Amino acid sequence: MSPKLKLKVFASRLLRYFFQGLLILAPIGITALTLYWAFVTIDNLIPKEIIPDDTSYNFLKYKGVGFALVLILVVVVGYLSSSFIIGRIFDLFDHLLERTPFIKYIYTSIKDVFDAFVGEKKKFDHPVLVQIYGQDVWEMGFITQTDVTHLGLEGYMAVYVPHAYAITGKVFIVPKERVKPLENVSAGEAMKFAVSGGVTNI
């Protein structure tokens, strides 16, 4: 084998090994960076710069203390909301925010999104295949409303279709006969399949 051919083979192998390493390290690195970003963001919710150095609260400046305190606060609020009296107070405050002009649009939108994913009224737990652009083309989606007669459409339902490689999506109002429920596919598997562009196996 000539030196030129050997160099070409070596370069080809080197490039292949580089991409193999990239396939292994890129998901790990991006996941680690995302978790670190979430950790730092939550940890910085407590403004450490306003805490004097010569006080007993100086420990709040340590890395991770703010993150732990925020998690404890969330757990405590969840625990208190399960009691009857405190739960009624939270309900009154919730009702007040839902009635306050302008604020209600922001608050109810954010609340509905969280309820859709992790609340008791989870919406993205009914994966379906839906025909939108043609009879032979199917999209992965989730039923958000089974009846939209209040919109003046009889026999239609609302289906949310997530975008690939994004956290966004679109809502389509389609006839019920163009929606096919996925009985043997979990909501998590369907979401991963849709967001990954169909790369992930179901």
UniProtKB/TrEMBL annotation:
Keyword Transmembrane helix set for record: yes
Database matches in InterPro entries: COV1-like
Keywords, comma-separated and alphabetical: Membrane, Transmembrane, Transmembrane helix
Coiled coil: none
Top-level taxon in the UniProt lineage: Bacteria
Signal peptide range in chain numbering: none
Official protein name in the record: DUF502 domain-containing protein
Residue intervals passing through the bilayer: 21-39, 59-80
